[in-house]
Structures are given as C-alpha cells and as structure tokens.
C-alpha cells in the first residue's frame, strides 16, 4: 500500500459566519467550534477575511488549547470567518492536515473547511497532478479546494458548480473568499449542515447546537445538493443537477456523533435517542434492578428505557469529564488508555444488583468488554447490555472510523457470540427498522451502509481490499 492510500479521512465539524460589519468574527467562530468540539478533538483552525485578505490560525488539540495564550486575539477583525475541528480516522494526525485549507488561486484568497470523506480522492488527485497541480497535505479537503479553484475561471460559484459533480462521497463544506461565504452539502446529504441568523449576520454550522452557542436563530438546513452563497446582496440558493431520487443522511449522526441538543434535518437528536431507549425496553425487556447509560451519549436512551420499563435509572458509571470521547481518538491505544481514566464503576449503586447498561453502539467491542469487567469487579450480580442501534456489520467509507471488517466485532459474530465475547449476561440490539423508527420526524432518508452494506455510492475503486472480510 502506498503512502497516500494509507492516509484516511475525517469526521469533523465546520462553522462559518458572515457579518454585516467588521468585528471580531473569530470570537463567534471560536464559540461555534467549542460547541462542535465533540465532532473532532485532534485539531482546530479559524480563518478570517479582512481588507481583501485572509489570515488564519490552526493548531493541534482542543479548541480552547489551540486558541489559548492570545492566539485568538491575534486574528484581526473582519466580516467573514470559517472554522474547523478535526478528527482523523487513522494516521495523518499532524498540523499539516489541520483545516481550514487556505491558499491563493484564480479566485484570489480562498479558504475551505470540510466534514466528510470522498471515495474518489485518489483518482481526482492523480488527475490534477498530471495537470501540474501541487498538493501540500494528504487530505481530500485540499483536493476539493484545488479542483474548485482550477475550474472557477475566477468565479468561485462556477468553480463549485463544476467541481461538485466530480466529488463522490460525503461532504459538508464551508468556503470563504474575501467577499463571500458559501455552504455546500453533497447530493445525498450524508453529513449535516444548517443555517442560522443573528440580527443581520448569517451562520453556517454542522449542527444547531453551534447556532445556539453563538445566540443565532435556526433558519433551515442546507438541502442535499444545495449550494448556498451569502454575500453583500443577500442569500442565494443553487441546486446541483441530476440529484438522486432519495437522500442518504448518515443515521449514525443520530446514534452517536451529533450532540443530543441538536436538531438535524427536522429530527431532535434527544428525542431520537430517548425513543431508542423506549424501543429497547419494549422489544428487549429483562428483569433487573437498575438501568444506566454509558456516559454521556447513551444517558438519554437509558432514561427512555427506564421510563418505558419502570426500572429505575441509577448511575452505574462515574465519568471523568476531562477525558475526550474514546471513539474519537486517532488510534486504538489512545482509546484504551483514555478509558482507563475516563470511567469508574459506582460500587455503592451496583453491588449485588442486576444492571442493564445502555450504549449507543458497539464497534470494536474493546470499550464494552472493559466496562462489563469493571461492573462485575464492582459487585454487579448481572450485566445486561442493550444497544440503541443494529449490529455494525460493514465498514464505513464515508467518514466514520470503521475502515475494515477486522475492526468490527459484528462483522463475524452474532448477538450470542458478541455476548460471550463481552462477558455479559445478555446483549440485544435494535433492528434496522426500529432504528429508522426513532428518526421518523426527520425530513430525509438515511444511509444504513454500516448496518446493511447498502451505500449511496458504489465502492468501485475505493481501496476494495480494505472492505473484504478478513
């Protein structure tokens, strides 16, 4: 495998602000990224447009760490800013690949931030290299920026319109020139993107929780296949041609990635997760003394289970709030080490008790196996696991950190075998149909590829060897 093939992509958060006046728009961007920190903890960056120039600052680490020591104050006042928080699925965890991507081209100064993953990056990159393009990073976001610029003929909107049909995969983009803020969502709408307003300012963000964080009012979601241009003349919408008949929003956003106070495409993440817990109680009941969630993403579902079943919700696990999410860590060793200091069993609550543990998903099984042992060591009489999603049987090539079958415990084990592997007394999952039911208020259809192997984009040419069951 060559160097480029070994570089994977990211699940990230993007934010943009267009202001009617020059001010410290970097601060607005900072607070928006802070609200999106759950989407990426590896690097952060902000770019600001001012006086026909673009300047930026980015670094490795969490948003408050990157912009500490006066780094945020170094960014000038301006009228447009975009920002990005990044999580790389493997490798390429370095400042070189932090976003936004900023450069000068046919459209003058330009910056781009991307959430998602292209499946045809290598082909596009090779094609442009033959035409003398030069790349500084190993990320698909730079490939998108260079292609948009190369096809623009000086008009950024034309560049976006011509480039987007060439992109295969998932992308939610915020793009900035010295006088425009542009938001783009891929034709299938795989990744979320929304628009808000604050007086005369416009905000674009991956999730509505970021709008709330900066005091903006939700306006609407960017539609699948839509290009939204915000400039001094207002807001303009353009739709891509030859759109698919149905959208394919990543349902894993509702299961895990999004913050529970966000609303994605008309569906409350909180309500979807609570309903998942209720369905687990309704279809997969078990006699127990208490029900608890794996903090924090499964707590809402655990309360739904408790409400439906009548079994009391009791905290079984204490969480260290200063350790990041274990799934969103660049490598397995970091995931395992962070879990050791992230959680501890509450012995007084669970000793001698039959415990139901609710979690959003099981990917590798490593975390849940340690949790089960932790609970048993603390005296739990029984440990029953209920999962708010179906068994993950297939890799995701559209931005989630499950790139090979060998990473998935569900790729080669059924429920009973998973139960035995985890050391639990029982394990039950929601079915695909039940999961979709939890998101019934959404105004979109869903990508369920990691559960059923049916993806919105074909896998032709996308490192097919990685997607074979090992």
Show the helix and strand layout.
Elements: H1 3-6, E1 13-23, H2 25-35, E2 43-50, E3 53-60, H3 63-66, E4 78-86, E5 101-105, E6 108-118, H4 121-130, H5 140-150, H6 156-163, E7 169-176, E8 181-185, E9 194-198, E10 201-205, H7 208-213, E11 217-221, E12 226-231, E13 234-239, E14 249-250, H8 252-257, E15 263-264, E16 267-268, H9 269-283, E17 290-293, H10 299-309, E18 317-319, H11 332-342, E19 343-345, H12 347-350, E20 354-359, H13 366-377, E21 382-387, H14 415-422, E22 426-429, H15 432-438, E23 446-447, H16 449-452
Parallel strand pairs: 14-23, 17-20, 20-21, 21-22
Antiparallel strand pairs: 1-4, 1-10, 2-3, 2-4, 5-6, 6-7, 7-8, 8-12, 9-10, 9-11, 12-13, 15-16, 18-19
Radius of gyration: 22 Å
Residue share in β-strands: 25-35%
* Estimated structural class: alpha+beta
Strand order in space, largest sheet:
3-2-4-1-10-9-11
What multimeric state do the chains show? single chain
Shape: globular
Q: Residue ranges: pLDDT <50 for 5 or more in a row?
A: 1-10, 464-470
What's the tally of helices? 16
Question: Could you explain the architecture of this structure?
Answer:
- The chain is an alpha+beta fold and 470 residues long.
- The chain has helices at residues 3-6, 25-35, 63-66, 121-130, 140-150, 156-163, 208-213, 252-257, 269-283, 299-309, 332-342, 347-350, 366-377, 415-422, 432-438, 449-452; strands at 13-23, 43-50, 53-60, 78-86, 101-105, 108-118, 169-176, 181-185, 194-198, 201-205, 217-221, 226-231, 234-239, 249-250, 263-264, 267-268, 290-293, 317-319, 343-345, 354-359, 382-387, 426-429, 446-447.
- The strands form 6 sheets. A 7-stranded antiparallel beta sheet has the order 3-2-4-1-10-9-11. Strands 5-6-7-8-12-13 form a 6-stranded antiparallel beta sheet, covered by helices on one side. It has a 4-stranded parallel beta sheet with strand order 17-20-21-22, sandwiched between helices.
- The longest helix has 15 residues, at 269-283.
- Mean pLDDT is 90; it is low at 1-10 and 464-470.
């Amino acid at each position: 495998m060559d160097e480029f093939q070994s570089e994977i992509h990211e699940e990230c958060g993007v934010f943009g602000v267009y202001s009617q006046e020059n001010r410290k728009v970097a601060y607005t961007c900072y607070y928006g990224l802070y609200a999106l920190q759950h989407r990426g903890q590896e690097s952060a960056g902000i770019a600001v447009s001012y006086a026909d120039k673009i300047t930026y600052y980015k670094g490795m680490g969490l948003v408050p760490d990157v912009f500490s020591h006066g780094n945020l104050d170094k960014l000038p006042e301006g009228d447009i800013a975009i920002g990005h928080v990044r999580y790389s699925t493997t490798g390429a965890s370095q400042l070189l690949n932090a976003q936004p991507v900023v450069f000068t081209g046919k459209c003058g100064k330009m910056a781009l931030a991307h959430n998602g993953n292209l499946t045809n990056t290598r082909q596009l990159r090779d094609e442009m290299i033959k035409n003398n393009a030069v790349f500084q990073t190993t990320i698909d976001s730079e490939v998108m920026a260079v292609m948009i610029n190369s096809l623009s003929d000086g008009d950024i909107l034309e560049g976006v319109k011509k480039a987007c049909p060439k992109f295969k995969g998932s992308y939610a983009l915020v793009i900035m020139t010295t006088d425009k803020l542009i938001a783009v969502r891929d034709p299938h709408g795989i990744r979320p993107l929304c628009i808000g307003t604050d007086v005369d300012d416009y905000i674009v963000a991956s999730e509505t929780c970021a709008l709330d964080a900066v005091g903006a009012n939700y306006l609407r979601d960017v539609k699948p296949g839509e290009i939204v241009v915000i400039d001094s003349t207002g807001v303009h919408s353009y739709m891509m041609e030859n759109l698919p008949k149905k959208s394919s929003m990543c349902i894993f956003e509702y299961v895990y990635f999004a913050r529970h106070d966000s609303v994605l495409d008309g569906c409350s993440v909180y309500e979807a997760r609570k309903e998942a817990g209720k369905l687990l109680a309704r279809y997969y009941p078990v006699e127990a003394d208490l029900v608890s969630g794996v903090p924090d993403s499964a707590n809402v579902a655990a309360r739904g289970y408790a409400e439906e079943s009548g079994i009391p919700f009791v905290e079984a696990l204490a969480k260290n709030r200063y350790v990041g999410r274990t799934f969103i860590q660049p490598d397995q060793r970091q995931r395992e080490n962070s879990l050791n200091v992230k959680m501890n069993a509450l012995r007084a609550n669970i000793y001698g008790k039959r415990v139901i543990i609710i979690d959003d998903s099981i990917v590798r099984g490593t975390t849940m196996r340690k949790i089960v042992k932790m609970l048993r060591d603390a005296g739990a009489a029984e440990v029953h696991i209920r999962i708010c999603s179906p068994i993950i049987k297939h890799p995701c090539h559209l931005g989630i950190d499950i790139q090979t079958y060998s990473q998935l415990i569900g790729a080669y084990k059924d429920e009973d075998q998973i139960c035995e592997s985890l050391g639990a007394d029982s394990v039950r999952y929601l079915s695909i149909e039940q999961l979709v039911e939890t998101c019934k208020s959404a105004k979109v259809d869903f990508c369920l590829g990691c559960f059923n192997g049916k993806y919105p984009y074909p896998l032709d040419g996308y490192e097919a060897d990685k997607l074979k069951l090992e």
